[in-house]
Amino acid sequence: MNNKDWRNLGLAALGLAIAACLPLSGNGYYLTIGVTIAMYTVLATSWALFSGPTHYISLATAAFYGLGTYVVAMGIDDVPYVILLVIALGVGAIAAGLVGLATLRLSGVYFVIFTLGLAEMTRQVVTWIQSNWGGHQGNYVLTDITEEMIYWQLLAVAACVYLVGWLIGRSRLGFALKIIGNDEVVAAHSGINTARSKVILFMVSGMVAALVGAILAPRWTYIEPSMAFSPMLSFQVVIMALLGGVNRLWGPLVGVIPFTLLWEAVSISFPNQTLLLMGVAFLLIVYAIPHGFVGLIEKYNARFRGDG
Amino acid sequence: MDILITGLLLGGIYALMAMGLSLQYGVARIMNLANGEMLVVGAFAAFWFYTVAEISPLISVFLISPVVFFANWLIYRFMLQPLVKRSKSQGQLEVDSILATFGMSFILVGLMVAVFGGDYFNYTFLAKPVDILGNTYAANRLVAFGMAILIGSLLYLWLNFTRPGMAMRAVSVNPDAAGLAGIDVQRMSALAFALGGAVTAIGGGFISTFQTMDASIGILFTMKALIIVIMGGVGDIRGTILAALVLGLLETFIATVIDPGLTLAAAYLVFILVLLFRPQGMFGRKPS
User: Fold this and answer.
1) B260 touches chain A (CB under 8 A)
2) What pLDDT was estimated at residue A308?
3) Theoretical Cys-Cys bridge with A206: which of A92, B186, B204, B226, CB 3.0 to 4.6 Å?
4) Which of A86, A67, A87 is nearest to A213 (CA)?
5) Nearest by CB to A282, which of B99, B220, B222?
6) Partners of A38 in the beta sheet?
């Protein structure tokens, strides 16, 4: 580690410490927004870990998130909460592994299409299983876990995701993924097991999504399939990550904060226009800012330095 | 027997919407995820014509399709062609076109919700019972199936026995070589994209005669059309029709025998089998 790494680590720790003080403000509204931002930060950053280098657009976030939520919803009465979180991690990893094995050996289009309907398909299966063997559709989740605790848990997960992302970036796996993203044929010819590398990283992002779903489950008191598997979540995560920029580890964060605030504002004043907002955001990403806010910042930075 | 006929009728409709997508992806190389929304636009228009102006869907689809054709041509020409030009590789184009068409699909849904509201809509058209082999079926489904066969055959004949059709197939096989042979690739791609959109909208018009729809249902149709196109092999009309019939049969079977809530799961089952065993499509050859 060189000086720059230490400086970045220090800055990250400082940022985390400041973020951790938010519940002390005592303002419930800020805390609610804080939980939402923390949740999307974790989801978008872990999404970018996989989709950033490989350019495979995953829309499976909602499916894994919903599975995590459901693990808690079904087990909260019988199993300690901490163990449920571990189970959620495992379920997320297994589900992502299976999806990855089925689709990641093929070209990117198949992967996108497969993940597009995954949340809806999982919802259908969970509903079917519950109504045939579970006896009822929804579950009550009654715990004494408060909003503050959810927030701190999410911050801890965020710290872990950043650490893992940083480690992957320095590892052979991260290097392999960058080559795969540039040219998959070249990667295969230089002896990289492309399918295995992609599946491993996809499992990491699936695990994180499931864990986040599990952590947020106590926020709702009653959980039913159509709430847990909301396909919108996948799209929001994609937009936030791409809007921020996926080539830097901190990029998604730059997209999450403004988009979450904008989303909150629009859904309060014009609840029917959130779809339009999403559509416009997608077009913006493609036509105006293909490298996200981070790309813009870096472009102006470079110009500024070039002039000075 | 009942399952067989209902399934085939459903499959015929699926074939119609998937043919549109197959043209768009096979020739214009655009993975159009707003395809299902075009279908809903067609359905909305047919509904509007029938309830407001009392024009039968059999006539109104032919009023709608030129408009949709032109709209899709504009979309290709001004929004997607720049992406085709700037992309350095097929992979880059796929990512860009997927994101762009997602954007369009959300905007279309948003506009439809804003204009018509988010309610379900349906109307009664030709809901007379028809007796086939001892079971009764609604006449509107039979009409829709007949139209699907008619349009499918026309498209097949046009692609295989006319000069523009041949040019279109050439672009689908290899755009670069087609350009060298004197085919205007950009024009053909725009034409294919527009034609695909129009065919899908016609499909939507017929589906609306027997199915209740709402503004946000498009994505489900997109999903099914995508699975059908992959199963049938990209750009292969025969394969698309066969795949659509298979999916229609399987869905009807699972909805009748196991649970009507599992139709998408049924589609996924087919999808996984195709991905594992025949990713190149039913009639496709293995890439060497």
Assistant:
1) no
2) 44
3) A92
4) A67
5) B99
6) none
